[in-house]
TrEMBL record:
SUPFAM superfamilies: Bacterial exopeptidase dimerisation domain, Zn-dependent exopeptidases
Keyword Amino-acid biosynthesis: yes
Keyword presence, Metal-binding: yes
Subunit record text: Homodimer.
Catalytic activity line of the entry: N-succinyl-(2S,6S)-2,6-diaminopimelate + H2O = (2S,6S)-2,6-diaminopimelate + succinate
Organism, as annotated: Geodermatophilus africanus
Protein name: Succinyl-diaminopimelate desuccinylase
Record-level GO BP terms: diaminopimelate biosynthetic process; L-arginine biosynthetic process; lysine biosynthetic process via diaminopimelate
Source species, domain of life: Bacteria
Pathway as given in its UniProt record: Amino-acid biosynthesis; L-lysine biosynthesis via DAP pathway; LL-2,6-diaminopimelate from (S)-tetrahydrodipicolinate (succinylase route): step 3/3
Keywords: Amino-acid biosynthesis, Cobalt, Diaminopimelate biosynthesis, Hydrolase, Lysine biosynthesis, Metal-binding, Zinc
Xref: Pfam families: M20_dimer, Peptidase_M20
Cofactor requirement: Co(2+); Zn(2+)
EC number: 3.5.1.18
Length: 379
């Protein structure tokens, strides 16, 4: 049996972040960490807790007129020799797989649960905490999607905040993401008699040239600028050193602005590769998750952005705000990690980003950001 990591929501946010990073949880292997999160939340005594697969749900039921959902995924991309964590006190950086994306955000969520999920706590809103699995892999496995199918009522709220890495900024909406495989046919032959075959790898040259020449759009939506991108992320072909390849597959990833829906995104990709398709290549879409418009004009989202006191910017990447947006729930991204460090070998979080993120959320959830200062505070 795997020993559970000790997660104490009363510990400081840095200690909690380290404990989470030190508990490996690559997509599909989150169960031990989910067990530890569940145990920590149940021990608080002020939360209703439920388990749905490797997603852990917890909520208050205080009869508040509004509810805020806080969500974060427990999984990481594959480890790159960067677990356990390493704290560089000289630079104030905590290194480790998932430190930025998004165990720092999960640590803040646990801290908030420890503050507002105990008997006698008085948050201004009822709160729901959603820790879920399989965000870093294809959409069909996503734990939040499973919760939406099996426990939809748990996701109700007036505002959803995903603690994805935003470097302490408020990020609105998210891009859509499409993954497709272009397959180029050929004819196998001995490489000593290559003229008898058709080299499928050579045939993929046109696809790669199209990608290299592709000019990505930048789209301004409600002041948030989304930069699209279409890139090859994998290429496969060949069976042996003396055989002309009879097949080559190029996997492409299209990150698209939220003014396109899934169908429009697929149509655009097919248009881009029209020449290759006309020449005999095939295109198969294997994953397509639509984005979300910023939604910052919604009162609840605008109130949170105002409380943080930072101008909003676009979320470059796909996050589960798209799922909440599809339910009609205003959703934003806000977390202490740096999105530019996500999935890198040198992934880390700046220690001085942790406490401010927690403090901003505590202020908002306690209602301090919404009230006027007292005479004593003004003095």
């Amino acid at each position: 049996m795997t020993d559970l990591p000790l997660l104490d929501p009363a510990a400081d946010v840095l200690t909690l972040t380290r404990a989470l990073v030190d508990a490996p949880s690559v997509s599909g292997s989150e169960a031990p960490l989910a067990d530890a999160v569940e145990a920590a939340l149940r021990a608080l005594g002020g939360l209703e807790v439920e388990r749905v697969g490797d997603a852990v749900l917890a909520r208050t039921d205080l009869g508040r007129p509004t509810r805020v959902v806080l969500a974060g995924h427990l999984d990481t991309v594959p480890i790159a020799d960067n677990v356990p964590s390493r704290l560089d006190e000289g630079t104030g950086r905590l290194y480790g797989c998932g430190a930025s994306d998004m165990k720092a955000g999960d640590a803040v969520m646990l801290r908030l649960a420890g503050r507002f999920g105990v008997p006698g706590a008085e948050p201004a809103h009822d709160l729901t905490f959603v820790f879920y699995d399989n965000e870093e892999v294809e959409a069909v496995k996503n734990g939040l999607g499973r919760v939406a199918r099996e426990r939809r009522g748990w996701l109700y709220g007036d505002l959803a905040i995903l603690l994805e890495p935003t470097d302490g900024e408020v990020e609105g909406g998210c891009q859509g993401t499409l993954k497709a495989v272009l397959e180029v046919p050929g004819r196998r032959a001995h490489s000593a008699r290559s003229w008898l075959g058709v080299n499928a790898v050579h045939g993929a040259a046109g696809i790669l040239a199209t990608l290299a020449a592709y000019e990505a759009r930048e789209v301004d939506i409600d002041g948030c600028v989304y930069h699209e991108g279409l890139n090859a992320v994998r290429i496969e072909g060949g069976v042996a050193g003396n055989v002309i390849p009879d097949a080559c597959a190029v996997t492409v990833n299209f990150r698209y602005a939220p003014d396109r829906d899934e169908d429009a995104a697929e149509a655009h990709v097919r248009e881009v590769f029209a020449d290759a398709l006309a020449a005999g290549a095939t295109l198969t879409v294997v994953d397509n998750a639509g984005g979300a418009l910023p939604g910052l004009s919604e009162p609840a989202a605008a109130a949170f952005a105002a409380a943080v006191g930072r101008p909003a910017r676009a979320k470059l990447g796909w996050t589960d705000v798209a799922r909440f947006a599809a339910f009609g729930i205003p959703a934003i991204n806000y977390g202490p990690g740096d999105p530019q460090l996500a999935h890198t070998r040198e992934e880390h979080v700046l220690v001085d980003r942790l406490q401010p993120a927690e403090d901003a959320l505590v202020s908002y959830l306690a209602g301090q950001a919404d009230r006027s200062p007292t005479d004593q505070e003004r003095a």
